[in-house]
Amino acid sequence: MKTYQFPKDFLWGGATAANQIEGGFNEENKGLNIADVLPGGNERYKILMNPGFDFEIHRDQYYYPNHEAIDFYRRYKEDIALFAEMGFKAFRMSIAWTRIFPNGDELEANEEGLAFYDRVFDELHKYGIEPVVTISHYEMPLHLVKEYGGWRNRQVITFFERYVKAIFNRYKNKVKFWMTFNEINSSLVMPIQGLGFSIQKEEDKYQPTFQAYHHQFVASSIAVKACHEIIPNSKIGCMILFAPVYAFDSNPENVMYALQEEQLFNYYCADVQVRGEYPAFMKRYFKEHNIELEIQDDDLELIKEGTVDYIGFSYYMSRTEKKVKTDEEEAQGNIIGGIRNPFLKASDWGWEIDPVGLRISLNKLYDRYQKPLFVVENGLGAYDKIEEDGTINDNYRIDYLREHIKAMSEAIEDGVELIGYTSWGCIDMVSMSTGEFSKRYGFIYVDKHDNGSGTLERKKKKSFFWYKDVIATNGERL
């Protein structure tokens, strides 16, 4: 039997996002954010993928699951105790920007919001759990969206700088692992969540999207520099959605097409944040799409100075591409595109399962950047069934995670420097893409359902006890 090895100080844990677990959407002066106006169910996916969203709440038409979510806002002590029982070394979470600055453009931070995260961090430290904090995770203040046009407006950089300095100063003795923008490259597919605007039907999507990205790169660099100055012993990373792109076959046309897709989706944002400069391949892309960025005099110097310490990334699936494809070949449920891979099985939601792809991803990223890596999202969304005796036997989740953890160990043996692993959705929560509760990722079941019903009771799944053993043996017993 092969033994799988991990570093002694490996950060095992789980990952969440404020807008998907907290609830309390209008408590203690919290302002509305993008997630608060996204309905649940199929309507959410349509909104995310199509232009013209009005960013309004229509209670007569829709249910808004993020408003209560799983009520971590009130139940965080109970949940953190469960994480501690599993043996978590780290807990990846995010701060809701609108708890700190309700509208986003205030001059002073909201003390009640700051105090909430003080309590959460204190509770984590009580059990020796290291917070890994994402600064902006799909919850831009709605006021900045409506009044400023989201990240297409350069003024937002100033508001973001005020926000990051407020949280760095407040939590400098409580948080040493930070990340700037969650899955920053995902806005190439869904700009609403990350960039804070919806492309209008008559609008060319390229210019506003890449101008907004430039503003985020500047803001990220400001955050990195501020973090290093305010919290000298901190580590601050970027966070990307990584999906290796395979050519469908050895046809050179398909190989070239797959390479170009991988460059744009996987490396464009990472190159700027890690290397500190725009990659050469984007010059041609900008030219061919008539993109002319407005860059101020010191922007490029700032980007060069504000490179990240490590690369956090999510890995759920690989992507297979060919230059010319038919509708029948499209990979169903795969929100980042591509065609079906005949060698892979898929989840209940059509996401292809590819553990070897994680090893490939780790090797590609480390070979390119030689920076420490951190797998901060990876997991299986599935339907879970409560048996008559109250147990939840999620062997399918255990099988999925086991194979991905093996892939990480293989990558470490390949020479990759890996900081840790925080499985996505360590507790059931609202799905980002579909707004469902039934798409469950957690080791902990939450009694909450797509129609809003449920007691919010927490139950340990079979995977809870399995992951506890994985952590206790530092990955040796899988």
Automatic annotation (TrEMBL):
One of its GO terms (molecular function) is hydrolase activity, acting on glycosyl bonds. Coiled coil: none annotated. Keywords: Glycosidase, Hydrolase. Pfam families: Glyco_hydro_1. The keyword DNA damage does not apply. SUPFAM superfamilies: (Trans)glycosidases. Its EC number is 3.2.1.-. The keyword Kinase does not apply. The active site is at E377 (nucleophile). Gene3D superfamilies: Glycosidases (3.20.20.80). PANTHER family: 6-PHOSPHO-BETA-GLUCOSIDASE ASCB-RELATED, GLYCOSYL HYDROLASE. NCBIfam families: PRK09593.1 (NF007158), PRK09852.1 (NF007356). Belongs to the glycosyl hydrolase 1 family. This is Glycoside hydrolase family 1 protein. It comes from Bacillus yunxiaonensis.
